[in-house]
Amino acid sequence: MITLVHASDIHCGEPFRAAVAEAFVEAAHAVAPQAVVISGDLTQRAKVHEFEAAAALLERLPDVPAVVTPGNHDVPLYRVFERLFAPHRNYREYISEELDTVTRIPGATIVSLDSSAPHTAIVNGRIRPHQVAFAREAFADAPADDIRIVVAHHHFAPAPDYEGDKSMPRAREILEQFTAMGVELILGGHLHRAYIGNSLDVHPGSERSKGVVIVQSGTTTSGRGRAREREKNSFNVIRIGERALEITHHMHFAETGRFEPFSVHAFPRREEMWFEQGTIRWPLDVEIDSEVTG
């Protein structure tokens, strides 16, 4: 069993909620994950003191591999000269020198791709062809039994609500390529509310039995939630078994001051859904966690 904590859109700066961050740190330790994923927007305006605060928060999370990717807020918006000529300077100094990374833990290969695109798409993001090639090479070297996971800040599928967000350009084409690589799970943020579904919800693909599970986290520690998570905070706990994936969406509640399980989503692993006598057999080997995490 592999357990991941998936958070996003920390937004250290003016919208940051310190009390919620404390609750998140406590919840993350209670989960005891094998890795922590933070899918972008660690800061609000890419300022030094914001990155210092974000780095300090990362230090307090469980002592396991951390997969972190830049978001559009992690490059300067109004400091135009810096955005054009050194957009990731502060991110590289305080968070990570590398923007596209490969993290390997027992049973999983996680490829993180920088979708921030500060020169051409400050809000909506981009994944470039060389990044797709980077992912392909990383997965080609992965053990055959590893689950293959992609992390990017911007979304490949819009949340099914009234906000009407547009996906990244070329999202469908890239999803096709990820499917061909054997990617089973994509983790992201940017939407400021959770969305947990499948790439087949938005694109039928050429292999209609091989969709990719898409998991978006809401904003974990800021006051910038949107749609049904307006003024709310959330993160995900992902449990990966041999046969199934289970994603528990956690929401912060002021009444308890803690993150509580809000919804649970289960998906068979790609090779573990099969037909027998006309009926889909769906062998789950993960337990639904109905207890409060905090």
Continuous helix count: 6
List low-confidence stretches. Answer: 273-277, 288-294
CATH topology: Purple Acid Phosphatase, chain A, domain 2
Largest sheet: 6 strands, mixed
The rounded distance between the terminal residues' Cα atoms is 21 Å
Mean pLDDT: 90
- Encode the helix/strand succession as letters: EHEHEHHEEHEHEEEEEEEE
Question: What would CATH call the homologous superfamily?
Answer: Metallo-dependent phosphatases
Strand order of the largest sheet: 3-2-1-10-11-12
Portion of residues within helices = 10-25%
What's the CATH class label? Alpha Beta
User: In the CATH hierarchy, what is the architecture at level 2?
Assistant: 4-Layer Sandwich
Total domains: 1
Shape: globular
**Radius of gyration (Å):** 18 Å
- Give the structural class: alpha/beta
Tally the beta strands. Answer: 14
Q: Can you describe what's shown?
A:
The chain is an alpha/beta fold and 294 residues long. It has a single domain, classed as Metallo-dependent phosphatases (Purple Acid Phosphatase, chain A, domain 2). It contains six helices and 14 strands. The strands form three sheets. It has a six-stranded mixed sheet with strand order 3-2-1-10-11-12. The protein has a six-stranded mixed sheet with strand order 4-5-6-7-9-8. Strands 13-14 form a two-stranded antiparallel ribbon. The longest helix is centred in the N-terminal third of the chain and has 14 residues. The two termini are 21 Å apart.
